[in-house]
Amino acid sequence: MTGPIVRRGAALGLGAAWWWAAVRLAVAPDAGVLEGAVAAGGWGLSLLPVHCVAKSRAVGAVAAGRWGAAWRGKRGKRGKRGRGEVEEGGS
Fold first, then answer.
1. Does 58 or 91 have the greater pLDDT score?
2. DSSP secondary-structure letter at 85?
3. Distance between CA atoms of 40 and 18, rounded to whole angstroms?
């Protein structure tokens, strides 16, 4: 039970610190390195891919080696044509 409370408290506290730094940089003429570091660090953390899953569990992930087979023009599991092949019976 304390896990979610601690996570939410940490997120709230860090979010408040980031907003304080961002507003202080925009408004206060004497904002310095501390505010800049906090704002830049929070922005950098927002770029992290936090919603990642393992490739084996990802929906629509391409199997290992499939891109290489497609590049070489070999047929994949679905029987798609490779480069330069013509479908028989087509118009």
1. 58
2. -
3. 9
